[in-house]
Amino acid sequence: MAVAGWRKLEVMVRRRPPAYSIAFPGGVVMGAGGTRRTILPSRYVQGQGVLGQLGDHVKSCGSRPFCVSGRTAFSKVRARAQASLLVAGAPFAGHDDTVKECTMTKIRSVVERVEDIDADVIIGCGGGKAVDVAKAVADEVSVPVICIPTQCATNADGMADAVVYTEDHKFVKDLYLNRAPYLVLVDTEVVGRAPAMYLVQGMGDALAAVFEKSAYASALRLRKGDDGVVSAAVAVNRTCFETLMAHGVQAKKDAEAGRITEPLEAVIEAIKLQSGFGFGGGGCAAAHALHNGLVLVPGVARKHGEIVAFCTVVQMVLEQRPMAEVERVIRWCRSVGLPVTLRELGDLDLRHLPKAAQRACDTEDTMQFMPFEVSPKMVLDAIGDAEGLARSI
Question: Do 315 and 347 fall within a single domain?
């Protein structure tokens, strides 16, 4: 079965030439015309102990902060955050530490509380769900938002969007916000000592950046519309990719050992800043669209970044990238513990895969930002080819 998958991929590459020029990550040539834009955090601060600077940063943009978090995340930083805010004369005006999912219901309820107490700064503390709620609330009430991650599972902290789900974690929609956070404050004493599985998940999410941004840039260039892509975003995403390839394995080992080292700092920056830099102003393509389809399949047991890693391999197959590139990514995923086969995603009910492929190709999702038309059949074929290739290595 593995051999058949390998052969099918080789035949496909010879039979159908790519619908656009596939460059190595970061090698997209920008065309003339179009408005180039990106949306980035105003400030990014990373290092050991930087949580102690929170009060000064809050005072630079307000004085009545409201914190949005999950209960566990808030407990990890509350004492240090409160101490810094008290010294600066800007204590918490209120907080909601009950976030379990980013839903429209939760966003609306927090908006009501923020408006009732007239908070002028929102602090999102925790993982992707909490910071997405915080960003959406801040956008709704038009105040700055500061994001304080407590782990590295996603790059949500610096993004100008929020991913909305149902209470049982079914994808609903992306909310595209008017601005990115005022500050992303990454204390590596906190995120670097979180369980290493979060770092692995974050690396899976960041892995997609270079491939999706390159596809996104090519799609906009081919359409010759009003939008373009900042060349720096593609270049930074290539740096992100090479950082993951060079330091990912060692960073995971250091996180497991509780050591805050240069490789770990480099990978944290790649996840929290570099990958988000590339997505600022748009940039998702096939990998995240397929993720949004796969999460609907019963039995999926992996987290966002882990699913995105598998979907990135599928996107590479869709693009007919050189075999050596695909193999390199598959081997690296295995070395850090990211899934590269459907079986590794969980006990999936494969009867639902056609529906997942159909959902991935929804015209409202990011598959539209591939530089060639993608059908559900192409998605299913690419999944099968990626699966066969991974099993053969």
Answer: yes
Q: In this structure, is the dihedral angle defined by the CA atoms of residues 134, 135, 139 and 140, taken in order, positive or negative?
A: negative
- Count of domains for the chain: 2
State how far the Cα of 381 lies from the Cα of 375, in Å rounded to an integer: 10
CB atoms within 10 A of CB 70: 21
- Whole-angstrom distance between the N-terminal and C-terminal Cα of the chain? 12
CA-to-CA distance for 356 and 292, rounded, in angstroms?
Answer: 8
Q: Which of 30-39, 202-211, 249-258 has the lowest mean pLDDT?
A: 30-39
Boundary of a domain, candidates 191, 209, 239: 191
Q: Are residues 148 and 239 in the same domain?
A: no
Question: Burial letters for 134-157: b for 16+ Cβ neighbours within 10 Å, e otherwise?
Answer: bbbbbbbbebbbbbbbbbbbbbbb
240 and 378 inside one domain: yes
Two structure tokens written together for 158: 């610096």
pLDDT above 90 (res 224): no
The catalytic residue positions are 205, 288, 291, 304
231 contacts: CB under 8 Å, gap ≥ 6: 30, 36
What CATH number does residue 326 fall under?
A: 1.20.1090.10
Buried b or exposed e, range 255-291, using 16+ CB within 10 angstroms: beeeebbebbbbbbbbbbbbbbbbbbbbbbbbbbbbb
CA atoms within 13 A on the CB side of 119: 29
Environment class of residue 351 by beta-carbon count within 10 Å: exposed (0-12), middle (13-18) or buried (19+)? exposed
Q: So what's the pLDDT on residue 125?
A: 96
Does the pLDDT at position 31 exceed 60?
no
Q: Are residues 79 and 226 in the same domain?
A: no
Segments forming the whole domain that contains residue 293: 2-38+196-392
Q: Are residues 222 and 141 in the same domain?
A: no
